[in-house]
Structures are given as C-alpha cells and as structure tokens.
Amino acid sequence: MNRYHHNAVPLVVPAVCIALVPWVTGLGSEPIRIGILGCDTSHATAFAKIINNPSAEGPLADVQVVAAFPGGSPDLPSSWDRVAEYTAELRQMGILIVDSIDALIHQVDAVLLESVDGRPHLAQARPVLISGKPIFIDKPVAGTLEEAVEIFDLAEEHKTPCFSSSALRFSKAIYNARQNPDIGDILGCAAYSPCPLEPHHPDLFWYGVHGVETLYTIMGPGCEKVMRVQTDGTEHVVGVWNDGRIGSFRGMRSGTHGYGALVYGTKSITHIDKFDGYDPLVIEIARFFKTGHPPVSSAETLEIFAFMTASDESKRQAGIPVSVPSVLAKARAKIDAQRAAHRQEQ
To answer: Is the distance from CB of 117 to CB of 200 less than 8 angstroms?
Structure first.
C-alpha cells in the first residue's frame, strides 16, 4: 500500500521534505473503510452518522465507518460512564464492534481516534501510525506536549498521514477570517470558549483547546510568548506573536458560555460567534482520508499545545511571560534524552 507523508515542519527543528505519493485505499469504486478507535464520546456516534448518511455527497460519499473499538478509561467518569451507551448505538447502526486495536486496523483503511481521554492517545495511535494508515486524532491530540511530539514523530518516521483539530477551526467564519476582505489584515484576536478543567490533563488541553484552536486559526502560528491569569471562573492567556501582534484566549467556567472571537483587522473589528457544527470538520477528515493531505500541519498543532503548556508554566510562575518555542524545545530535548537512554540500555 502506498502512503502519504504529512508535510509538517516542527517549530524548533530543521524541516524535513519528503515528496507525496498517491494514497490508495479500497478497491475500484469501493468506499474508504473507516474505523473508530474509542467510543466514549458523542463525537464517535455523531461523526459516524454524518459519514454513513445514505444521502452524503462530495468527499463523504467515498467513505464509510465499518468498525469500532470501544476503549474507555476506567479512572475518568466522562469516559467509562458513556462508553457502553455509545458502543451500543454504533452497533445498532450496523458497525462492527471489535475487541482490539489490531483487529480494528485489519478491518479498515483509515482511523478516527476518538477517545475522549488524551492520555492513551499515544499508545492507541502507535500501531495505527506504524501501519501507515491515515489517522485523525480528536482533541486533545495527547495528554502531554511530549506525547504529542512523539505522535507526530511516529507519523514522520512511518510516513503516515496524521492530523488533529478542534471542530471550531472549520466553522466558515473562523476558517475564512484571514481571507475576509471586510476584516482586512489580522492585527489581533480575542478568542473565547468554555474551559472546564479535568485533573488528569493540563488545564487548557481538556476543553480550552477549542478556543485556542480558534485563536490560531485566525492569527496563524508564530506566537513567541504567553502570560496567563487564572481565577476560579476564568482563564485569560495573552500571547505575543513574532510580528508584534497580540492574541488572547479567555476560558469560561462561570456565567454565560459560548464560542467565538473578536477579530481586530485593518478594515474592521468583527465579532465571530457562529459554530457550524461537526459537518465541516468531518468533510475535511473525509477529504484527508482520500488525499492524504492534512488540512492542519503538525507544526501548527504542536505550537497550539506548546502555547497551552507554556500557559501552565506562566501560571506556576505567577503570570510571567513564558517562551512558547522554548517550551517546545524542552519537550523535544526530553524525548531525545529518553531515546538516547533507551538505546544505551539496549
């Protein structure tokens, strides 16, 4: 089977350029067979319904969810108290439920990693990445920045198409903000989203990632440093980009919750507050499975998670500025040291 290599450049390491080659899934006019890894989130059933809709058109007409592996995290109530319900719903849709990740890989051409818990994502993604079959990893891409780096390193090593994104990125007004002639050039952005905390994950990984993804979709990568203030009900993170622009994320745990951004442009100040649901993301995933071209680079995703990790460090240091590139470089150095130690043990 031919494979694609995702054309991603890590933020703090030299670029590696590998030519793309055609991706082949299925035979003839047969649809691309998709497997769901992790049935402990409503995304599993919602995405399956969109993909398997008999009236699906465009990229969705060429894909089909055919199998799923339940997974589940026993120490996370929002996982174990939902996995049985969503697994049963997928089974009722005619989707085969398998008893292992290996069995899933052998049944499908591509994988949706939907486990709500980011901590097992590296272990769950590893055999898929080694297989070379394209994989979409739902938020958060991993439970730590180091594990996120390892996931994309595995994708690089095995030339496996891989991407991760919040559905907020592909809402039309958010996705098109940088090309909106009524806004003009983006001078700054104040994004916001709900931000409940989960004790097993870094503060913003669990849900704040939606608002941070919105911020990056509008501003683009290139954040140099972040400063964070936290209260019981609110997160406020301010980032300074390498061209002097300022972007911020406000995470809400009290009062009215919503998703959106205030975008400061050369032609207008525009409020964006419309979420277009899951369909735009799922369409992009289907297109990705067909082409092998990730719509979001690994470099940008890693910077998003470095931004959130740096915000944790800023909080620990009473809100002082923390360098985003240095946090990512530190994660990379930690992984390299672990690999070197492992080689010495062998």
So the answer is: yes
Query: Of 149, 124, 175, which is closest to residue 281 (Cα–Cα)?
Result: 175
Distance (Å, rounded) from C-alpha 158 to C-alpha 193? 35
Q: Assign 92 to helix, strand or coil.
A: helix
- What pLDDT band is residue 339 in, cutting at 50, 70 and 90? confident
Closest residue by Cα to residue 259 from 305, 315, 203, 218: 218
Closest of 161, 160, 113, 168 to residue 141, by C-alpha: 113
Mean pLDDT of 62-88: 93
> pTM of the prediction?
0.90
The residues pairing with 228 across neighbouring beta strands, listed in sequence order, are 237
| DSSP H or E segment with residue 96 | strand 96-97
In whole angstroms, what is the distance from residue 69 CA to residue 91 CA? Answer: 11
Q: What CATH number does the domain located at 168-277+306-327 have?
A: 3.30.360.10
Q: Where are the domains of the chain?
A: 168-277+306-327
CA distances for 102 relative to 106, 133, 142, 316, angstroms: 6, 12, 20, 41
Question: Cβ distance 201 to 308 under 8 Å?
Answer: no
DSSP string, 182-248: TT-SEEEEEEEEE----TTS-TTTTTTHHHHHHHHHHH-S-EEEEEEEE-SSEEEEEEEETTS-EEE
Q: Name the token pair of 81.
A: 């108290």
Q: Count Cβ neighbours within 10 Å for each residue of 284-313 and write b for 16 or more, e otherwise.
A: bbbbbbbbbebebbbbbbbbbbbbbbbbbb
